[in-house]
User: What shape does this take?
Amino acid sequence: MIRKPRILVVGIFVMDLIASTKQAPNRGETVIGLNFRTAPGGKGANQAVQCARLGADVTMVGRVGNDAYGRETVAAAAASGVDVSRVVVDAENPTGVSAITLEITETGAHNRIVVCPGANGAMTVEEISWIRDEVKNYDLVMLQFELPMFINEAVARWAHEAGVPVMVNPAPAAPVSPELFRCATFFSPNEHEAAAMAGHPIRVDDAGANEDDLRAVADIFREKGVENLIVTLGGNGSVAVNKDGVARVQSVKMPVVADTTAAGDSFVASFSTLWCAGLPARQALAFASHAAAITVSRPGAI
Assistant: This one.
């Protein structure tokens, strides 16, 4: 039975500064771009917006500066139905930005991203301590790795203690504490992040990711305490691995790939919302693949 889930997203707001080019510059090289645009972003904000658009009741916890970028990014989330009442406006630090080079090629659009967290990096456990008492009111907590790791660890611990499932999207890849692994109900890296954190390669060819490698990586994560591993494989789809086996879902091919910036955010948010709403994991994965395909067919993250 489908129900309206309540989801708490703890993450960052940034303004994406996007330069499109036919060829990304090499080190020390300057190239002429095609165009430049700005767009609200941040993994947490992207995921919160997607969850809200799919019908979830979403609260976003984050920080922005007292500036135009901050006002625009928060307004964009609110316009999609996200509860932004818990967002902190920092009087001293600016809103974070992501510098994105979007390389437009015959095979599609490929991005390179540098995130400057700004006000997001000043978040403290004290200012979000209310979560400890209120997390029990949510069906899922979503975390990413763009905030200081001690924030993720505290929120995951509070959710775990309250029996609330935790979705961890470990992007960008970073060292993970044993406690965070144990508190994660779902751990959803891409193949590069999964291989880096497991210390085991995942070979990918035209047939997709090597199943033996996936099982080996899943075993490593399971030893760390992760029950459900969901690995996104770009154009090769995704795979979910747990003690019951391996479930593969193919990617949905789009005739035009305009911008891959938020494909992973769209996938994680869509899976999370549909799973919370009561869909079986395999169906939620299939829906998430379709949602990610629609996301890459359009420019911008939100």
